[in-house]
Design brief:
There is one protein chain. About 35% of the residues lie in helices and about 20% in strands. By secondary structure, the chain is of the alpha+beta class. It folds into four domains: about 1-85, Uridine Diphospho-n-acetylenolpyruvylglucosamine Reductase, domain 2, CATH 3.30.43.10; about 90-210, Uridine Diphospho-n-acetylenolpyruvylglucosamine Reductase, domain 3; about 215-320, Alpha-Beta Plaits (2-Layer Sandwich), CATH 3.30.70; about 325-435, Alpha-Beta Plaits (2-Layer Sandwich). Helix 13 (about 340-355) runs antiparallel to helix 14 (about 380-400).
Length: about 450
Amino acid sequence: MNRLLLEAFPDIKVSVEPEDLLCYGFDASGLEASPSAVVWPKDTGDVVKIMKYAYENNIPVIPRGAGTGMTGGAVPSKGAIILSLEKMNRILEIDSENLNVLCEPGVINGRFQRELERLGLFYPPDPASMNFCTIGGNVAENAGGPRALKYGVTRDYVMGLEAVLPDGNIIHTGVRTTKGVVGYDLTRLLVGSEGTLAVITKIRLRVLPLPEDVITLLVLFKNLEASGHAVSKIIASRIIPRTLEFLDSEAMMAVENFKPIGLPKDIEALLLIELDGHPSAITKEAEKISEICRSLDAEVSMAEDEAAREKLWECRRAVSPALYRLKPTKINEDIVVPRNKIPEMLKRLRRLSEESRIKIVNFGHAGDGNIHVNIMVDREDKEEYEKGIKLVGQIFKDTLELGGTISGEHGIGLTKAGYIGMELSKPEIEIMKSVKKIFDPKNILNPEKIFP
């Protein structure tokens, strides 16, 4: 098949070299498998050719952005072609009058934001991997990020899509106007579908005016549960910060060893809170938040300038890589619970850690109840690793008991497919499978993902 692939696409870059198969055979989940080939389309026409060939020859195709996904969504199935969209990386149109942008899926999120900010525009979704992840990958996973508390997730900004179906046909979904209710909302169906329904080739995104000013607060707590109560009290006071991030003591310790910022050692939790808007309004809100936190015996400080603010965010984004210094394997989950249940969830996570004697490190977007739970183990230690995997099921059980969900922004992919029945009923899963079959009757597009 490798030779036939090379002959089938003379104008498209194709590789069957072992080093390329190795590099494109894994993502941030740690799972890996070898594809049969890697192809790099440069435009929609190339994607159409590839999908038509794959459909006619029953070859699985795995769409891929930058491989930053945490649940194995970009890991190839047996004999699959990796369809890397990284060369489709152009910003095609910036409509400043109507506040929307048309781009290709391979555009890096961070670059996209910087380009817009130069024009006084703002694209809120900001995953921790924003300097590496692609807009197309963000759409496929419905990525969130710290600013989701105030501004929402990727889905809230996708106005329309161009996508190629498994048989090579092109569809255009959505509108470029503020309103539009003609037929079913296929755009929202494709957002978060993890590359299982169609290959997204163009994306029209809503953007906002750049906020006038930003204030960043660093809040340190000597009591873990007090930080959870602070989150609830801040929101109950009718203040919606643009970010309300949480790190527990283990996460802080890992960051201090990786990128030191001088955090005290007797602190059990940290909140990184950011407000944006008119300077006088957010100054009042910052004062009110400081009062709430100090009433819970917290220490509050403000970033003095842009450099100090960026240093704090660098440390927050460094949490995930820093954890690998604790243990070689990180079982990473992204549960969400109602905000007022955060203290209870944190108590349960601490109890599970103590009972199992396995380090569980927690951080994430506390403002919307999204906790990134990291079970730190060594995959080579079979007993410890199996113990860690068992903890996942218990954590999901506790999450659902508290009215939460087992995935806030990482999707299901391969790693969570076995747990989907804990949250969704059999009829619900069957409806979803039926939708998959309508889009992809031959099951060639990212097979084996989402459904066990």
